[in-house]
Amino acid sequence: MRESELNHRTPGRDGRTCRGVFRHVLPAILALTLLLGGCGKEEEVRGPEKVSLRLNEAQMLLIASSERKRTEELYTDRIWQVEVGDGGRTYEEAFGDRMKEFFIELEAMDCLAEAQGLKIQGEERKRLDDAAAAFYETSVAGTDLADRLSRDDTAALFRDYALALAERNAMMSDRRAEVSESEAKVIRVQQIITDDPAAAEKALERAQSGGDFYALAQTYSRNRSIQVRLTRGELPQEAEDAVFRLNDGELSGIVQAGGLYYIFKCIDAYDEKETALRRQTMQEERLRTVVSEAFEDWCDGHSVEIDSQIFGNVLETAKTGSYQGEDFFAAVKAAAQ
Predict the structure, then answer these.
(1) Which of 140, 183, 212, 215 has a CA-to-CA distance to 95 between 20 and 30 Å?
(2) pTM of the model
(3) Which residues contact residue 42 at a Cβ distance below 8 angstroms, ignoring those fewer than 6 apart?
(4) What is the pLDDT of residues 79-136, one digit of tens each?
(5) 186-269 carries CATH number 2.60.40.1120
(6) Beta-carbon contacts of residue 282 (< 8 Å; ≥ 6 apart)
(7) What is the domain partition of the chain in residue ranges?
(8) What is the pLDDT of residues 190-224, one digit of tens each?
């Protein structure tokens, strides 16, 4: 998981709190604490707890430099002047916003992981420290970055990001994100849809007598889509209940719903490949919702601050530098697996 996988592409607001910045975070919920006074006293609300960013300037510079190099490898250095969104903002400006948001989210992820008791220790820590040492020798030592970034800082940064990855993995086990095969099921059918009950009766009679269903649909259906893939939620409930009970080759009766008359012939009662893909997509969507809600709750009670001058220095140095090292995100992910 790299920077682009941790956050949205749309830049967040230019504020100091993390609420509304990124959604792809953690499954822990820390609610805003309300201090309730005694009888007759007004309710007192405690403001957000300020959280200091654990990354120092050199560590932020390594991440920004690595992601900048990866971006140029993908899009060339001409990407920075491309306008994105409204208002004439450049990709360069959007990149700065995304990096700030990434640092805020990384801090939030690590805080939540620690609140859940997740730790980087034992064999995992040794593996990360060894990877960090190798990364330092190949990507930092002998460069201008070595004057700013120590070996210990590099190792700590590897552990911080690995902790965020560990929290993400823990988050993926949240049961609210689970999707059953029944929910995700994809079937393939041929259909006849008409608003004429007499036509529906005639079409069904001919289909039951062995008539070619596809040809009958071309004659009787008002819907040009005859052979379709269907998932739950696409049809009126009465039609859905009928069609998802069918086995391969079976015909439904006439199903009336919403002023229309439906007849289905099942071609494939379980499209295994499409069902698997849909299940994965649905789980990812649900996971994003779970994560978004958890992150919003955390941000209700916390504010991560980044010194604007230091952050500006990071962006400018990364812009004018010539980082040629490894991809930081890929290096940590490989070590953390």
Answers:
(1) 140
(2) 0.66
(3) none
(4) 999 998 778 899 999 999 999 989 988 998 899 899 889 999 999 999 999 999 999 9
(5) no
(6) 179, 183, 184
(7) 3-176+305-336, 186-269
(8) 999 999 999 999 999 999 999 999 999 999 999 99
